[in-house]
Amino acid sequence: MKTQTIYTCEACGKHFSRANEAYTCEAQHMCLSLDLYYRYLSLYKDISDRSAGLNAIKGRRSKKVAGLAYERAADSLIAFGLKHKTS
Ligand SMILES: [Zn+2]
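A: This is the predicted complex of the input protein with zinc ion.
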């Protein structure tokens, strides 16, 4: 038996046999180069991780520090979106 992984573009649903082909398709939907799309994904993951971490923190002081880190991550994603006109 042979197992095959299929990658799907989240924008159009097209299937690919290689992950970078699906990423390339998604990048094209956002009018970004593949390198810039990877940067976008990194910023998006950073803000998602910080959001999850913020919700898990109980201490007031720790929550404030995590909140500032979240705001910085959000600012980075917004700045990226403004510079590259993503939506
Ligand atoms: Zn696509």
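The pocket of zinc ion is lined by residues 9, 11-12, 14, 25-26, 29 (CB under 6 Å). The chain has a mean pLDDT of 93.
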